Amino acid sequence: MIRRAFFITSTLVALASVNAQVEHGPASPGIGVGIIARHDAAVDFKDGVEVATIDGKDREVQDFSVCFLLKLGDLPQEDHPIEFLVLEQPNNRLVFTVGSGGRLGCRHKETQWFGQLKMPAVNRSMHVGLSVKRDPRQSLAGLWIDGVEQSSFVVAPGNLQIKSPALICRAPRLHGMISAIRIYDRALTRPEIFELSLLANPKPALTGFSGTFALTQNEIIAVLGGSEAVALMEDGGWEAHLITGASDADHRFELAHNVTVRSLAWETDTVFRQDRPLNFGTLSQQLDRVGATTVALMFGRQECLERGADGVVTFEKALDEMLALCKSRTPRLILFGPAPFEKKEAPMRDLSPLNGALVDYNRVIYLAAAKQGAVFVDALKAWPKDSVGFTSDGLTLSTSGVTTLAERYAMPLRSAYRIPAPDIAARLRDTVRAKNKLWHEYWRPSNWAFLHGDRTAQPSSRDHLNPNVRWFPQELEKYRELITTKENEIWKQVSEMGRKLP
Q: What's the pLDDT score for residue 145?
């Protein structure tokens, strides 16, 4: 059972950590910087390879990293682990091993890291990374598998001699391949390790919408936006409408199978600024992390509130930059226009005069969608006239406001399909909500500082039986199975609903 202590340990500390650790420090040098030896092509362990330094020169480094892609044909059945990658230098020996059950190990002098390969551990590529940052006080040297930290140690100050050939890969008794081998003369950060791990899963070829929305098999929709987007995803109505609307002319729901929605929205996010905790990763990395095939963007309302009519030009520029980033990950984009502000009586501020400027923001979004070949959904045009009670203060959407927005956002996206009975989406919404709650706890867990921030060396961040084991990251990964189970329940429920339609 997942340890709930992770999510309740000192709420005040968690909030302070998230607010303090925004990603506005020095930029990462990038995964191409600091490489002193590399071999990209796949190599069979039986054939082996020697990896020379890039310039043929010897090196002496303090901090360093080693990473590679590993693909096993089967798991060793021997009692002793098999060595498959070795850096053997004077007075230094760094060796990677794999044992029965998929136990991965790495030894360097008196230090040993261990991790467990994901199951199934055969016939699939996995990324392995060792990042060594020497600090006599903190455990900052860790072993990572597929972007998940397995164990970490204190590594005392010292040097590592690297003479060419830097690494020797050879394991005649091991069935499998190794590729994308790299040695760095610096420690890699978590976002960099995660970015490298994406090499294990190449992106599929995708085509844009060309202005017409149509779901595909295995569609993964990533939702970006601020407070309204967060509320919409928590409500679950929009997602339920979207999934149940993807039936064919005979009301069969096969098209809805494997349609996945992932909320990357964050309260107060705007196109100008998206603050995240330390080591959370960039937006492009998060889109890659969820495997987004489509990106849905919900912006414009908060920007209008903050900057008014004078902010339209800067909004257009920032939106173009965000769309360019999203399009670098996938050409399939959906842009949603904002919901209007609502008139309120004193003592609340009347925000309805901002609706004139909001029309200009809405037009910018429409033109941007047309330029990018994206789908545009106009909420202002379809919004009920003289609406009352859709917000609590003129800005924050009420329950009826969220429900209305969900319907307005979903209707144009399912117009190409036959619309199912009206109550079907409502029956699915509770299951969608439960799935999204699990996703929220996985993607935005409490106490980030103890998970991947600046408190990972604290005792409470580690296994009480073995302080070298980082149990928070591995515990958190258990949510993935829970999320998948809930999504299977959603698809099963939708399929059963389809069979009951007339």
A: 93
At 205 the pLDDT is 85
The packing angle between helices 227-235 and 237-244, to 10°, is 60
pLDDT at 27: 54
Digit-coded pLDDT (tens) for 389-438: 899 999 999 999 999 999 899 888 764 444 455 566 778 899 999 999 99
The predicted structure's pLDDT at residue 442 = 95
Q: How far apart are CA 59 and CA 477, in angstroms?
A: 37
Identify whether the C-beta of residue 166 lies closer than 8 Å to the C-beta of residue 50: no
Q: 92: helix, coil or strand?
A: strand
The C-alpha atoms of residue 401 and residue 392 are separated, in whole angstroms, by 9
Across-strand partners of 142?
131, 152
Looking at residue 101, the DSSP 8-state letter turns out to be: G
With a CB cutoff of 8 Å and minimum separation 6, the contacts of 481 are none
The bridge status of strand 294-298 relative to strand 260-263 is unpaired
The candidate with the shortest Cα–Cα distance to 227, out of 425, 20, 391, 454, is: 391
Q: Which residues of the chain have pLDDT under 50?
A: 1-26, 247-256, 415-419, 501-502
Three-state secondary structure call for residue 60: strand
Say how many residues make up the chain. Answer: 502
Q: How far is CA 111 from CA 108, 154, 156, in A?
A: 5, 9, 10
Give the whole-angstrom CA distance, residue 115 versus residue 471: 11
* Tokens describing residue 394: 């003129």
pLDDT at 18: 39
Pairing mode of beta strands 220-225, 49-51: unpaired
Q: Which residues pair with 132 in a beta bridge?
A: 64
The pLDDT assigned to 90 comes to: 67
Rounded to whole angstroms, how far apart are CA atoms 370 and 474?
43
- Backbone torsions φ then ψ of 333, nearest 5 degrees: -125, 145
Query: How do strand 59-61 and strand 160-162 relate by DSSP bridges?
Result: antiparallel
Distance from C-alpha of 477 to C-alpha of 147, rounded to nearest angstrom? 11
